[in-house]
Amino acid sequence: MSYNLFLLAFVLGIGGTFQYGLQVSIINSPAEYIKSFIRETWLRRYGSAPSEEMLTLMWSFIVSIYSIGGLLGSSSAGYLAVRFGRKKAMLFANVPALLSAALMGLSQLCGSFEMIIAGRLSAGVGGGLALNIHLMYAGECAPRKLRGLMAITASTAIAVGKFVGFALGLREVLGVEALWPVLMAASVLPALVQLLTLPFFPDSPRYLLIDKKDKEGCIKAVKQLWGDGDHMAEIDDMMSEQEAICGEKPKSVCDLLRDRGVRWQLITLFLVASCTQLIGSNMVYFYAYNIFTKAGIPPTQTHYVSLGLGSTEIISTVLCGLLIERAGRKTLLWKNYAVMALALGLLTVALFLQDSFSWVPYCSVALIFIFIMSFGIGPAGVICPLITEIFIQSYRPAAYVFNGVINWIQLFLLGLFFPFIVKPKERPCCRSWRSSTA
């Protein structure tokens, strides 16, 4: 098997899903600096400081607006992937990424926190588009025996992006007040790398054969990605799918929702996608600092614990890639969901008892690591090849759009309301934590 296939997966990840993971984690480190910048800008404009409730609302909006952009990007992914092909659509995703880096990087210089909001929105558009296209592109380029492993490169790239985001946010790197605009603009580098390297790779063989009716282009792409050898069995499988479609045009999301023939696939996708978000994995990363501080970790150490959290997810997604073909998708899902539910239940008890015993906060941290490990081995990796495997070519772009819309709507709601849900009551034991997060 040619190394070009795995090199393509790397290029897709570095400029697409890597940026998604980077944006999820990178927003944590400069939180206090951005809040201070908003407070100072507000005071300079209006002559009075904003209330704590307004500041919390503005910060929640900065965090959650990324999901609105992701919703817009994922909604357009299906059209762009069909109209221009997987490769060109992936290249388009870097345009809003570059725009967002410019807006957020220049926000302090221009004295405008609105530019941070606009930059986060633009970054979300690029992230939503890139996440869907990466999964579609990688899944369609891989032969059947490597489809699961190739698709999981998306979750691995997200995990690596989170890790790099935490690493860049350390005080020893870019996590100081003078450099937070540079930290927010860090996504410019992976976007440029992908723009310079992806044009040298072919488009998806399935897209070339089934959508463009270009058999010669398909065979050429297969040889470039898979190397020399007998690949006619895989090409015949693509041709059989082309014949089964009977020249049907790609379906829309409305067609997907109306067609009873794919009802069970749609229900399966909805349940898995909803559980992936509602289980709380992204909230752990969005507010890792607050969670670890509440668990009793000293504020000076929380960023290093978050760095370990990111490395844990990288290891777990790699393990998922090694296990997915042997253990099966269903087994990895239900077993790891069970472990995650148990970990969250025990974490709730541990947080309730954290002031009663000195060792309880350490149990809380251990449970978070167990939760992230199970998330990476289970739903984070399994959902990547799921859409490619259960939907045929004509329904695949619409299924990715549906999955993206469900994910981003839920992520927006969680990101918007989570700060108010975890905001402590006026209790003496919570005052120190509240002052550290104000």
What does this protein structure show overall?
The protein is an all-alpha fold and 438 residues long. 78% of the residues lie in helices and 0% in strands. It is built from 23 helices and no strands. It has helices at residues 4-26, 31-46, 52-84, 86-92, 94-105, 107-110, 114-141, 147-168, 180-184, 188-197, 205-211, 215-226, 232-245, 253-258, 263-278, 281-286, 288-294, 302-327, 329-352, 360-377, 379-390, 396-422, 431-437. The longest helix has 33 residues, at 52-84. The chain is globular.
Task: List its salient traits.
disordered C terminus, mainly alpha, 438 residues
Question: How is this structure best summarized?
Answer:
With 438 residues, the chain is mostly helical. The chain is built from 23 helices and no strands. Helix content is 78%, strand content 0%.
Query: H/E element string?
Result: HHHHHHHHHHHHHHHHHHHHHHH
Low-confidence stretches: 425-438
| H/I helix tally | 23
In angstroms, what separates the terminal alpha carbons? 54 Å
Computed over alpha carbons, the radius of gyration is 22 Å
Mean pLDDT: 83
Which secondary-structure class do the elements indicate?
mainly alpha
The oligomeric state is single chain
Tell me the fraction of residues in β-strands, as a range: under 5%
- Principal-axis shape equals globular
Helix content: over 70%
Strand segment count: 0
Largest sheet: none
SSE topology sketch:
Blueprint lengths: L3 H23 L4 H16 L5 H33 L1 H7 L1 H12 L1 H4 L3 H28 L5 H22 L11 H5 L3 H10 L7 H7 L3 H12 L5 H14 L7 H6 L4 H16 L2 H6 L1 H7 L7 H26 L1 H24 L7 H18 L1 H12 L5 H27 L8 H7 L1
Helix pairs in contact: 1-7, 1-8, 1-10, 3-4, 3-7, 3-22, 4-7, 5-7, 5-10, 7-8, 7-21, 7-22, 8-18, 8-21, 11-12, 11-13, 15-21, 15-22, 17-18, 18-19, 18-20, 19-20, 20-21
